[in-house]
Design brief:
nucleic acid binding; YprB_RNase_H-like_dom; alpha/beta; RNaseH_sf; 7 strands; YprB ribonuclease H-like domain-containing protein; two-stranded antiparallel ribbon; Nucleotidyltransferase, domain 5
């Protein structure tokens, strides 16, 4: 099964566009891990034509808050519909059990003992200052943490959060995550 783990960073925030709508934001970079090539890569907006074939060949797209944020924003640039590819949004899976959203950094720190190397707002400031390599490094760290969290949940059936000083196990039903449904595409749409 070919899995693409991904995360995006934007060059602006919701306050800049006046609405809480991810599709109104501007993409800075997309970071991915491709299980087929076993490689991490970053793509700037001008390089998206190289990203689409990788995503289209994926059996599964995996992210954190990806169904709510990343996929709607990427669909703004994609000539097809990324929602047609099977996806697992780890934040959504946690929210379905817990009843509320929890950040990637928190879940990773409590579950894995590791975390993020900054904050999304930091990445926007770095981008504005021209520190593109720093933004890419930050984005790829989020992809790495997302992959490690997914692998942990798949193996153990849970992730953890802290509530005060107590660790709480969030049991996740991972049984359908890697079931094939022939959702991978074979070419970029639309046809030219």
């Amino acid at each position: 099964m070919r899995k693409i783990f991904f995360d995006i960073e934007t060059s602006n925030i919701f306050a800049d566009v006046g609405k809480n709508d991810p599709s109104l934001l501007d993409l800075a970079v997309v970071g991915i891990y491709d299980s087929e090539s076993d490689k991490y890569s970053c793509f700037e907006q001008s390089e998206l034509t190289a990203l689409w074939p990788l995503m289209e060949k994926a059996d599964l797209l995996i992210g954190f808050n990806s169904d709510h944020f990343d996929i709607p924003l990427l669909d703004k640039y994609y000539p097809g519909n990324l929602s047609a590819i099977k996806s697992v949004d780890i934040m959504k899976e946690i929210k379905n059990v817990l009843g509320r959203r929890v950040g990637l950094g928190h879940v990773a720190r409590v579950t894995l003992g590791t975390g993020k190397n900054g904050h999304g707002l930091d990445a926007i400031e770095w981008w504005k200052k021209g520190l593109k390599d720093k933004v890419k490094e930050y984005c790829l760290q989020d992809v790495k943490v997302t992959k490690e969290l997914y692998d942990f949940a798949l193996k153990n059936g849970y992730v953890q959060i802290e509530d005060g000083t107590n660790k709480i196990k969030i049991q996740l039903d991972t049984s359908g995550w890697e079931k094939r449904n022939n959702s991978a595409m074979t070419q970029t749409m639309p046809f030219y």
